[in-house]
Design a protein that fits this description.
- The chain has 359 residues and is mainly alpha-helical.
- The longest helix has 58 residues.
- The termini are far apart.
């Protein structure tokens, strides 16, 4: 307890009376004096954890972050909404497009069955447009055209060798139009092996066509232009290619069993692993052809032009090579026993390693 000396000096009494500088005030009085600012050397108060010193500033920063977050969420929601709408719109467009293609397809098929040839031609071109516009419908369009070609009445028959009277392709313009569309679409990325078995397409221009793997059994391509055509792995069983031009054609792995190639031109053609069995090659022109690489079993070769051809190690036993031109051909290891060689040209042919029997 602090005690005060009641004995005051005059100065002391003046201080108390004036509530002066010692800072004492009578009980019940209010000190209204303005406090002096803190010394500049006093360390300011700082909130913990690095928070802003001004609470109002802290509140402003927090609201700013929340606002940014809300803006980001709204933007993301807008993007998702837009993407969903785009997908829905695209699906609706695809559905509408497929519906239109279906209608076009149905109408084109109906046109192919019309009585007037010009309407049938229009149907063929409509299917061609569908095959180009819709990759998913390419095979279906080509199958319909192939069926039309297989079943449609052909051009009038002609002599296979003399081609007389000439084939009137205008008499079956719709047929040849459909076949020409098949040719033009044969190099498409969506093209698949096609079935033209039994079709009658004499004098057809199939130059450069890609019919690899196609079923061409029994087809009539008499006098057709097949230069540079790709017929690899095709089935040509019993096919008629008499007088056809197969120059530089690819016949690798093709089956020519019982096929008729009489007077056909095969110069430069590839016949690697080609099945030649009971094949009519009478009068063919196949200068420099490599028959040694073919699966050669038997063939009619009377009058064939096989100049400079590779016929090595082939068995021609019992076959007819009469009148054939074998000038400069390679007959090394060839078996010519019991072979008919009447009028055969064997100039410049080395028969040293050839089995000739009583030749």
């Amino acid at each position: 307890m602090i005690t005060m000396d009641r004995r005051h000096t005059p100065n002391t009494r003046r201080q108390i009376a004036g509530h002066g500088r010692i800072g004492l005030k009578p009980p019940g009085t209010l000190d209204t004096r303005v406090q002096e600012p803190r010394s500049a050397t006093h360390e300011p108060w700082e909130p913990p954890n690095g928070q802003p010193s001004d609470p109002r500033t802290a509140r402003r920063v927090d609201w700013g972050q929340i606002g940014t977050f809300i803006t980001g969420v709204a933007t993301a929601a807008a993007l998702i909404f837009t993407a969903v709408n785009v997908v829905i719109a695209r699906d609706q467009a695809n559905t509408a497009e497929q519906g239109q293609i279906t209608d076009r397809f149905t109408k084109a098929v109906e046109q192919l069955g019309a009585e007037k040839p010009e309407v049938r031609i229009g149907g063929a071109y409509a299917l061609n447009r569908i095959a180009s516009d819709s990759p998913r419908d390419h095979s279906a369009a080509m199958d319909v055209l192939a069926a039309f070609v297989r079943t449609h009445p052909p051009a009038p028959l002609t002599d296979a060798l003399l081609m007389w009277p000439p084939v009137d392709t205008t008499a079956a313009a719709d047929l040849y139009t459909a076949a020409d569309i098949i040719k033009s679409q044969s190099h498409s990325a969506e093209a698949k092996p096609i079935n033209l078995s039994g079709a009658r397409l004499a004098k057809m221009d199939f130059a450069g066509v890609d019919l690899s793997g196609a079923d061409l059994s029994g087809i009539d391509l008499t006098g057709a232009n097949l230069t540079g055509a790709n017929l690899s792995r095709a089935k040509l069983l019993g096919a008629t290619l008499a007088g056809a031009d197969l120059t530089n054609a690819n016949l690798a792995d093709t089956s020519l069993i019982n096929a008729n190639l009489r007077s056909a031109r095969l110069t430069g053609a590839s016949v690697t692993r080609t099945e030649i069995n009971a094949t009519n090659l009478t009068g063919i022109s196949a200068v420099g052809i490599d028959l040694a690489s073919a699966n050669f079993v038997s063939a009619q070769l009377a009058g064939a032009v096989l100049k400079d051809a590779d016929l090595s190690n082939i068995s021609f036993v019992g076959m007819d090579l009469s009148g054939a031109l074998l000038d400069g051909a390679n007959l090394g290891g060839t078996d010519l026993r019991a072979t008919t060689l009447v009028g055969t040209d064997l100039r410049d042919v080395d028969l040293t390693h050839t089995r000739t029997g009583d030749l």
